């Protein structure tokens, strides 16, 4: 399994406390700014086909817009029904103005 740091967005495109949807390497990703720190997860809720970035972000927890499933963005941990499993997270880093995500087997 190979992994590579890939630039997926510019830091200036993700305001403090905001979310941003990005598609990269065949994946739908969500980027989050939580108190100035950047996190990345899959953007699809594990319960039903809904984009988490269409929901809300509060205090490091994203809520799905469809059925209200909630996840911690730092760990992907699901916070109760109706979600069946945790959310995939990805390591992030910021170099210069670039948000980079460590994605496995991109190409």
CATH architecture: 3-layer Sandwich
How are helices and strands ordered from N to C? EEEEEEEEEE
CATH superfamily: Rieske [2Fe-2S] iron-sulphur domain
Structural class: mainly beta
Instruction: Provide the domain count.
Output: 1
Largest sheet: 4 strands, antiparallel
Number of contiguous helices: 0
Total strand count, please? 10
Brief sketch in words of this structure:
With 107 residues, the protein is mainly β. The protein has no helices and ten strands. It is 0% helix and 47% strand.
Detailed description of the structure:
By secondary structure, the protein is mainly beta. It has a single domain, classed as Rieske Iron-sulfur Protein, CATH 2.102.10. Helices cover 0% and strands 47% of the residues. The protein has strands spanning 3-10, 19-24, 27-34, 37-42, 56-58, 61-63, 70-72, 89-90, 92-95, 98-104. The strands form three sheets. Strands 2-3-4-8 form a four-stranded antiparallel beta sheet, with no helix packed on it. The protein has a three-stranded antiparallel beta sheet with strand order 1-10-9, with no helix packed on it. A three-stranded antiparallel beta sheet has the order 5-6-7, with no helix packed on it. The protein is globular.
């Amino acid at each position: 399994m190979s992994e590579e740091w890939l630039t997926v967005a510019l830091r200036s495109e993700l305001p403090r406390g905001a979310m941003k949807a990005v598609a990269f390497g065949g994946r739908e990703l969500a980027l989050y700014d939580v108190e100035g720190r950047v996190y990345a997860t899959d953007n699809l809720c594990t319960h039903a086909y809904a984009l988490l970035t269409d929901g809300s972000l509060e205090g490091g927890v994203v809520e799905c817009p469809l059925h209200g499933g909630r996840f911690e963005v730092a760990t992907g941990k699901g916070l109760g029904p109706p979600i069946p499993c945790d959310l995939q997270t990805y390591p992030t880093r910021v170099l210069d103005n670039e948000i980079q995500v460590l994605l496995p087997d991109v190409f």
